[in-house]
What we know:
40% of the residues lie in helices and 19% in strands. It contains 11 helices and 10 strands. Strand 1, helix 1 (18-31) and strand 2 form a beta-alpha-beta unit. It is globular and about 50 Å long. It starts with 8 loop residues before the first strand and ends with a helix. The model has no long low-confidence stretch (mean pLDDT 94).
Amino acid sequence: MSVERPQPYIGISGVAHHEQHVALFDVALRERIDNLGYFMMVGIQATGKTQILDIENKRGQMWHPVGDSIADAAASEDSGLTKPYVHCFFDGEAELVQGIASVMRRTRHYIRGLQINGLAWVKEDFEPILSNFKEQYPDQSIILQAGNITLNRHSPKEVAEKLKYMPADYVLLDPSGGWGREMDVDRMRDYVDEIYQQQIPMGVAVSGGLEANNVEELFGPLAEQYPQLSCDAEGRLRKGSEGSTQLDLKLAEEFIMAWEQTVTSLDSNTAK
């Protein structure tokens, strides 16, 4: 028996201003990614420094927008082809609650959900905070990141078992954390397979060093085996020196095109 999962996405993360968001929408519209059954997740970063203290962090404001400028990155008149999500990296329960409140105050009218990064959610209990968010904002989705520390400390079975009780719509298996480190396909397969085998009604996404040159090799085999698999790219789609990098729209467009070719090829093979 198949389980119903939410609509899959292709993610472009590290968007920092409105013009980048509009450019990505133009690509998504031109390529009609919705005809493949996907939407584009536009990821906007938020941390305690940038959204609670309202100061710049080490990645720079062209990667992590500071203060009210996060609303500019999120703003969109799109009806759903691209959906902005704020990627929240807040340290501990108190900062998580405060950070979410700040993000929602600034972006509530634009975003479609939050991605929760960096939490030890397998070991610790963040379910009440996330449940409260879902109750307060029933139209918002949650992407729960399983980062490298989580994946190193917990087996596929442990991750899948905890996911059964988490009020999230998607889980992102993310060993790179935006730094461009390539995923290990076999390692990712172990986690994706366990989640699918246990029929957890949650979308699953993978990331880790994805770019135009490797999306077929890294994402393709997983997407072929696991229908409705999502992916996200960030670290290898940037240009500039450390502390002042920005999203390279040309690299992002090339990635989207290569991803589209990969997914279209898989659909064609399935139809045969």
